[in-house]
Design brief:
- The complex is a heterodimer of chains A (246) and B (384).
- Chain A has one domain: 3-Layer(aba) Sandwich (Rossmann fold), CATH 3.40.50.
- Chain A is 38% helix and 18% strand.
- Chain A is built from 10 helices and 9 strands.
- In chain A, helix 3 packs parallel to helix 5 and helix 4 packs across helix 5.
- The radius of gyration of chain A is 17 Å and the shape is globular.
- Chain A starts with 23 loop residues before the first helix and ends with a strand.
- Chain B has 384 residues and is α/β, with parallel strands linked by helices.
- Chain B has 2 domains: 241 residues, Thiamin diphosphate (ThDP)-binding fold, Pyr/PP domains (Rossmann fold, 3-Layer(aba) Sandwich), CATH 3.40.50.970; 131 residues, Rossmann fold, CATH 3.40.50.920.
- In chain B, the strands form 3 sheets. Chain B has a 7-stranded mixed β-sheet, sandwiched between helices.
- The chains are: A alpha/beta (246), B alpha/beta (384).
- The interface between A and B is medium-sized, with 22 and 22 residues.
Amino acid sequence: MKQTFKRPKALVDIPFHFCPGCHHGIIHRLVAECIDFYGLREKTIGVASVGCSVFLYDYFNADVVEAPHGRAAAVATGVKRASPDNFVFTYQGDGDLAAIGTAEIIHAANRGERITVIFVNNTVFGMTGGQMAPTTMSGQETTTTPFGRDLETNGFPIKMSELLTELPGSTFVARAAVNNPKNLMKAKKLLKRAFEVQTNGEGFSFVEFLSACPTNWKMTPKQATERVQEEMIPYFPLGVFKGGQE
Amino acid sequence: MKQVIKGNFAVAQGVRLCRVGVISAYPITPQTTIVEELSEICARGELDAKFIKVESEHSAMAAMVGSSTAGVRSFTATSSQGLLLMHEVLHWAAGARLPIVLSNVNRAVGPGWNIWADQTDSVSQRDTGWVQIYCESNQEVLDSVIMSYKLAEKILLPVMLTYDAFFLSHTSEIVDIPDIEDVDEFLPPYRPEFRLDVDNPRTFGGMIGPDCYYEERYVMHKDSLKVLEHYSDVCSEFHDKFGREYDIAEEYRTDDAELIIVTAGTITSVTRIVVDKLREQGKSVGMMKLRMFRPVPVERWLKVLGTVPKVVVVDRNISAGLGGVFANEVQAVLYNSETRPVIYPVVVGLGGRDVTPDDVEGIINYALENDKPKDVPLFWGLKQ
């Protein structure tokens, strides 16, 4: 009998710590599948961030360096410049990349660093317990916006993909979701392209994943996945913003 | 009104009672529940404060610089990496003489990542010009918020009050929450002489050259020392009003002591129990609780420790290549005493390692049994 589905070699065989219904596990797997597909496992260096993604080093069968909060893109810059033959990726949440690390991501993209950035946007600070992040949707209730995010005082949900698209230094920018099989298959294609942009030496690649956070959204996994479709995708549209065809 | 609340909630209650006008917030474990609770307090209408959700701790402190310069009582809270990210602006806030109050939940510094109790984060900010106060209980935490604003606004220097991660931040204790009317009488509204006011235009934080920067820093240093004088006034006024007092460097059973152990934070409570036990055994040991660390209460430390034969200093922090920071500073002060005590520096409990009564008893007995320290510093309970 032929085995058609198995754990990617780039993932260690241990259970994820993620909450039920969280999309981090799926996104971890997609990244691992791409590492396997391009045969990059022996030359991959991951840069982990701060937040729920902090335990990247426990799950990936690859070298991982932990970065201070928000600094992953800057740390990855140093790694890639020092080791240009390695495949270097960062994996960052929105509380990290779109808040404390905004300067680092913008300047890494603007310099056209030859790194691949996996950005997971679940519209809250997850690990600290669901505070408002810059990506939090208008009206969304969080522990620091008990009446919902008020755009007047808290500003607008920040669209990182659109922002980075405008920078001449970025090569590939796309937004994906893994809330259903169709979106998941598309996401994998986009991720492959993002990998190729680095392996071909084309430049900076960035894939934003919309992700569910049932625990902090106080929803069931099913409700949370539906929220991605009904609330997030209309505001954070999916697709390639720069550097290729879907 | 007495309530059973966690240390982080005690801070939030203190901020409410002080009628703080601007709060900036960026989440970090184990501080986060302070600003979450403040968000709730504002939402319930119990505090009319502007609550700013900023994108980093660096910006959190920068926002405080703005709001405090505008003449409004300002508060933020952080921990560990967050405090370190603020470092540049901490210097700025003190140099600009802004009476901001910051609560820092003492947490270890990475890497490796560690969210548990360790005082290295705040001791490494000792040169920023901030007043530093270390707390031992949730009641002390709440009361210190109120005392800190009184002190800060009198001297025009920012105050950092710190307490141990989880041992206080997430542990519930009985706390007597004062009535806001009493706090209003103790702490009048903040009315700074100098603030941003377009009807009375001023420039803040401009360039000053070598001809006067030196004097400006001299004045700041001298004013920082004035905190020591004003602290006793604030302390006695607080005692008159609320019936509680917190010595700048509390002495516990130090009469005729041949050994005094110096502690900061929650290890102090553990040490009290051990001192009682050893006193019952006839051992003449006492304790000095290190509450204010900046400015250094030099005269007080000299008075308490200067004539005792042996001094043990317990540090839940480390300056690699030096040892514990408190021990180093106690040593520096005692160098000027007539009879220099033998000092036993001990590093304990880094990264939240539990420090039990047995540990403290072992440390004290080690110092009693040895004429000189075996190691400087001694790492107590080190795994081989």
